[in-house]
Design goal:
6 copies of one chain form a homohexamer.
Chain A: E1 2-4, H1 20-31, H2 36-48, H3 57-85, H4 108-111, H5 138-162, H6 166-194, H7 216-220, E2 226-228, E3 254-256, H8 281-294
Parallel strand pairs in A: 2-3
Chain lengths: 299, 299, 299, 299, 299, 299
């Protein structure tokens, strides 16, 4: 079970110039083989399928906390894509209000969607359950996860280099730091179980995280060395695995007993050309208003 | 963001006779077009892509709470499949310990997986992001969701009729009741926005829920008329939409301010024939034990 | 069984400036989840799988007539795409006669195809049988169909806003009107079976059809309130379901006993750069000519 | 445009013992790479995309008539599958009415479908638009079609050998004969255009059609040497291509000016366990009855 | 470029009792995510895409030799599947010669194929290019390859446990040993580049290779510690990476300057029920005989 | 088994201006339905699955030699794509070093790949095993192969017309000639088995190969009439099938007893922006250097 909190794990800028081509690139971080849907679903299924939890609890708890954090990552990627697409459809049609999108590779942001995120990659191909690896063999699953985070870091770096829209940069700067934490966590878990020191592979790809300007503020706040506890009472034993020095900075790793505080998401404006949330958004607003009133919520 | 709670929304029986063929049928409820991955991801993406949240908050909150509940549903389906597969691999190999699985249609439960759930349907085909509909148009999204829940109810009924393993029956009995609540919720939302009374379509399929023995205890506890608030402070305005009489029983619908209490999951035993959580589970147990000790967690 | 008639359901303009990017968008109306392949195949399979036809004939006949009309729609979408692509390949190669296409997202119109329609969506992804819903449960199938037509109307509106090539506009103007008729037909069918009044959802999306200039001539001719009988002697009982006032105009719905008269399709010119119908079209013409002569057809 | 006629191209026996495993094999003839969806859609798209129709009319007309016939073939395959599945769900649930299906590879006939045909192959994988070849180059398209019909004949022969349910045998016996006609037609068309005599490849696979008992009555009636005209006034010039002796029997080929008369389809009984056409079919019957009465159709 | 040698890398027994269900399991080793198509194509594409080959030659050569060996592995898996299916179709049809296959999950071995291997996994799903990881980043590609070989070892062990047909056991016994060598090779390569000692992960899964009886003869011959040079003059520098002790036995690793000698493949008999190599194999034999004679090859 | 030779079958120019859009078009020749992955894998699987090899050796040997040659073709296509992409990533990041790629349809060349070839088509869709036809029926497989080569020739001609980058033209000029040889070979094989003279279909598409300037040097060297023996001792009997005059030039066909000599591939430079072969390629070079030294290879 989960509880949802209506906050984002990092702060995103409000919409500025729309960048639909850049949004297509960011989709790789959502629905690509190494996107956040993949990290979320790999760890989630591995935790659901975990056998002998009592016997291996620190590992189970580590996995479950990271899985929970990844939910916040798909939320962030979605918010970024929505932000980047805002402004492409703010005129009410009909007419040629979407003509600008005719030459875009992925027209589905406009035709199927309402200028929102889709569970697709940068080719427009859907995320698929075949991206999930859940062998049940703990060492293998962790080996996989280390590889997956490495591929994910690669893809985030490339999207960083390709897209400089402020929302995309806020996203990739943050995800690079947090993905790095997950790489470390899985490296440590493999080390505890086998003795192999995967931290010698850091950074992988070989570009140091602190060379990236948008990562620096997060590193300064210590986000690169903390694993958060995304639960109230459960999943608390991850601390037994997430220990030792950070492979890039040498600082001690920390398991923080609470989730991060988070940031208020921007409430993105209607895009009537694509009927989001409707052709005449004000009608919905009115109906909602009177429902709230009737329920004693207004004011 | 989410917090995870290590409890299941309903109680599942412990493993009994394994039923790998039945587990394949249950996979449809996980990764099929109308499975719980689909309900989870449809509502999650719709909530992520929701524009003008302030203006339409009761609808946004309704969607977000149901999305949060669905996470618990994929968890339940996974637990069921794991339970049904337990006992197929409890002898350590090598040898022909998995020979019994040779004639099963979906051998991937054994070959790729460790006798656990996969994000696949009953054909073994992976869940795909193309199952997600997120048009951004509120009325359309809700119309879709009503249809999706109807298809989901159909599929649960069929799996109920096909598989009588105790875990499968505990699952379908519960999901039929909760899915019914979501059908009602979306019907009410459409009605508030358009005046169309979709509750006249109930029950759809036309078999009354209370004819199903495994549903009755849940109905007796009132689970069929309650929508839960799966958050602390946020998403609280769903109450403004989820109102009026239940279409089958006439009782008043309720928005409950807390999540359900939930049930302790069974800790499923190792299956060494498929190396879950390892070929020699006791080694992992030992390592975990000394990590816990070192971290001051051992009790 | 079917008989084919070599006429189009509406008039399309002859080729003018080619618009390959626009043609990619129009592909969504062919092979997308909500494209005409989907409406055709959903209703066709549902009619093939209809049980107890005698007992439910008016519904069976309604479905079968709409299915038959949809065949004409895939034909129209194909004709539109062919028209829009005409002129991209009218020079005989080799040489760089197709260089202009190098930057197009879907190069398969040029490489695999001969500047013709493909059963793909706007991403270039193939239409798939998994888009077909055929549960056999009449109420569910109709609920699905209403949702499908709503999604289809959304997609047509978006393509309308995105592409203003004369052929695309002739297509979307017509399909919006006819798709609207199918929405009404399924709403009425659901109402007859359950009492739920889905016409309150009209128009969905909320933009009135008569605001679209290219729809107006069709509305003036009454195309928005007529269901056609696409058969000689069979499938005649749809009239029992397709009754009552039109939800947008209040006019009485009509079941017309004949198919529409249709329009002569344009015979599109060869495109030798893509070898359609050959590298040297005149050779084929000559062979055909002498075959016709030998068969006594020439004249 | 098409007109639909509610008759089947050959006679099928009424339901007898259900054969769900056999029905899965027959699905290959529906949705496989060489199934009837493929022949239908290949020829249909090729005819839609045909350029310079006036200049090459005999070929255009040949293609269009065969395309029209193929529609009747998907109808026949669907009717066969429905017939073979009838009896698997005739008890009203809930309870374990579908337990027998638990071990079937393709459970979707029961879970997604209502014991009806699906656009899938024998693996349960959906038919895909990527099975369509429409290059626009007439000689290539015809070369492809000859190959496609050869693959189709292979698959029909295999299904014949695998499934001896009376409905399956009625189907394969008929389709083998008619598919053979299409092989001949495409061979002749290639010959007219290039001089290459593909009839030397007959029969391909090398088993003579008349060795198959279920083919013999159709051969006796001359079905192996006739191409039908599936239109009223249009597509009449196929006769100029479909000429010469039949490659297996030496008889003269005939272009028949009318479609075959066809056979009354069986009206298959409800299957309430899968809610087809509903959980309580008699309710639908009643509603339909009063609608017919109100429309002046009853009696 | 390659030269082909008509020998198998290990000896397979001649056909005995057919085992079509087992053959389906073995397909996972052909076309699954971790099958030999995947190892072959991953290493092949990585070697094709290798930049700065002169600068990193020992790694380029290591990769290229392993890629070359994998070609022999898909050949072996194919030969195994063909062996296991031999005997399912040795009677000439028509008639119900394939009736026994009706209940098999993957009927395509019979319907599409001629009792031969297909590029599919154990579900019957096709191998896909999306299984290839070729980032161009050497350390990442090697990390991936280590993970891939680990997953492959897992799958081979499971197939071993599931299928005891003599051909399957000959295959898995051999592949487990050779796959182990590739795991070691990639571990060593990562170590040379980063210092991380992945050999501590051996064996992964944790079952020692020498516990498997069918592996023992290969280990006795030293196959577990040798990398072969699959080229004449090129790709000779792999020796610089493939050094040090074997992680399970401590013996020194060897780069052998020649390919293994290999074994004569069995020439599998015709299966006329599936027309392989024809309905009347003797006709083909005759034609081939006279062609050989005419070419001066006979005798 | 194979031996790899580190040479290309034709000469490619060194990198010049990068052409990422053109590289996307060339991908169709790699991973499209008619790309070189398809020809390679079709013939490879057909040869693996060949039954009664002794009885039909000339055909088995023909197939196996062509299969072997096709390996060299995927290598060539990969080298071409790598060449065309070189220069898109030669600046070290981070920063917006990949900004130019943001508007490309297939961003995966940059995000997933390291500016290298992927097993995808021009849409970015992965090659799939369902493109392989291996019926086991020799005549059918050969009929298929003739069709496949025809489709492949069509696609090569279109890519020729679309992309004039020097590497792409060197590739298509060569492949058109060699593909033509394979068309001839399969035509001859069909003729030997059935008497049907498929060479009357040449050229197909109808554009003569010698009209293409980049084909002329290869034709002058006789490449259009030679089949190579890609083996040492095995597969030598293809000569018995590959006989008679060339259909376009009338010259006698030749089976050459050796593989072509080949050309040295260009060693393409690092692209540090995409980390190929690393973010700091010189580090890898250093490590490799000392490994070579230690192994006695340096100098």
């Amino acid at each position: 079970m989960i509880l949802r909190i209506d906050r984002l794990q990092t702060e995103l800028p409000p919409p500025s110039d729309p960048d639909p081509a850049g949004a297509e690139a960011v989709q790789e971080l959502m629905g690509g083989r190494f996107g956040e849907m993949s990290t979320l679903m790999n760890y989630t299924f591995q935790s659901f399928n975990f056998r002998d939890r009592a016997g291996a609890r620190p590992f189970y708890d580590l996995l479950s906390n990271i899985a929970a954090e990844e939910y916040g990552h798909i939320e962030l990627v979605a918010a970024t894509i929505n932000t980047m697409l805002t402004g492409c459809g703010d005129e009410q049609g009909p007419d040629t209000t979407l003509a600008g999108a005719r030459t875009l590779p992925n027209k589905q942001h406009f035709i199927q969607g309402g200028l929102g995120a889709l569970p697709q990659d940068s080719r427009g191909m859907p995320w698929t359950g075949d991206y999930v690896f859940s062998s049940g063999d703990l060492i293998e699953d962790l080996t996989h996860n280390f590889f997956l985070e490495t591929g994910a870091r690669n893809n985030k770096l490339k999207v960083y280099e390709m897209v400089d829209h402020p929302a995309a940069r806020a996203l990739t700067g943050y995800l690079l730091v947090r993905g790095g934490v997950h790489q470390v966590a899985y490296a440590r878990a493999v080390e505890k179980l086998t003795g192999a020191d995967l931290t010698k592979l850091f950074p992988s790809p070989r570009i140091p995280t602190d060379k990236i300007p948008e990562c620096q503020p997060h590193i300064e706040r210590g986000e690169h060395k903390r694993l958060y506890h995304f639960s109230g009472a459960d999943y608390a034993e991850a601390a037994a695995v997430f220990t030792g020095p950070h492979p890039e900075t040498g600082e001690e790793l920390e398991f923080v007993d609470d989730p991060p505080e988070g940031f208020e998401p921007n409430d993105l404006p209607p895009q009537p050309a694509v009927f989001a949330p409707g052709y005449s958004p004000e009608e919905i607003r009115e109906i909602a208003g009177s429902l709230r009133e009737r329920a004693g919520l207004a004011g």
